[in-house]
Design goal:
seven-stranded mixed β-sheet; seven-stranded antiparallel β-sheet; mainly beta; 49% strand; 265 residues; metal ion binding; RmlC_Cupin_sf
Length: 265
Amino acid sequence: MSAIKLVPRWSQDRGNADHGWLKTFHTFSFATYQERDHQQFGSLRVINEDRVAPRTGFGTHSHKEFEIFSYVVSGELEHQDSMGNIEILKRGDLQLTSAGTGISHSEKAHGDKTVHFLQIWSLPSTSRLTPKYFTRHFSDEEKKDQWVRIVAPVDAERVSADREGSGPVPVQSPLTLFATLLGPGKTLERALEGKKGYIHVIQTTGYNSAKAEGASVKVKGKGSHENLQLREGDGGYIFVGKQGDELVVENNGDRVAEVLVFDLD
C-alpha cells in the first residue's frame, strides 16, 4: 500500500486579485498576498495562474537567482528580454528563463485575445549562473491520456541543453514536471522519485474565484483507500512515503482535465 499523503490546496483559498488588465491566482505567497503556511514547497516557489487582457501585460522588470517558466494555456504571450530574445508563445509552448546573475524581461498579451498562462518559479541549486533561455513545444496530442515530462533537472537523463529542441526544458532545480490532458474515465499512474510533490488542475473552462468547478479528478496513492477530489484551480501537496510510490489520477468528471504534477526533492 502506498504511503503517499495528500493535503488539499483549494482554488478559492489561493491568493486572488482582479486588477482589470490582470486576473491572477497565487498558490504560494507572492506580491501583496502573504501566507506563512504557503511560502514554497521544496524548490517550488511560485505557481501563478494568470489571465492578461489583450495588449496589456507585465512591463520590463528584473529577476535574478530564479528559474522562471511560462506554460501557455490559451491565447498568445509575447516575451522580450535583455538577452535579445523576442518570441510569441502559443498554446503548448513552454518557455524557461534561467535568471542566474540577472535578466530583465517583459511578458504581454499578443493580439486581440486574453492570454492564460501559468507562471512558475523554482529556486536554483547553484547560484550565480549565466542567464539562459529555452523554449519547447508539447502538443495536445502528445499529452492526451499520458504523462509528458516537460521540465527536468539539467543533469537528468535525455535532457538537452539546446535553446530549442525536443524533450523537457532543462531546469537548475531538483524538480521534474509532468503534464497530461486526461479524458473522462481515464486513469494514469505516476511513480514519484522525490520526497514530495504537488498536483495542480488548470482552470481551463474560465476564470472562477469561487469554489472550484469544471473538470474533476480523483487523486490517491496506489493501493490507498483515501482519495482527494480536485476540480479546476484546485491543487494538492503530496508527501511521498518512499521513493517510487505511485500517484493515481483518475478523471471522474465529464470533460478533459489539464493536470500538472511536480516531482520534488
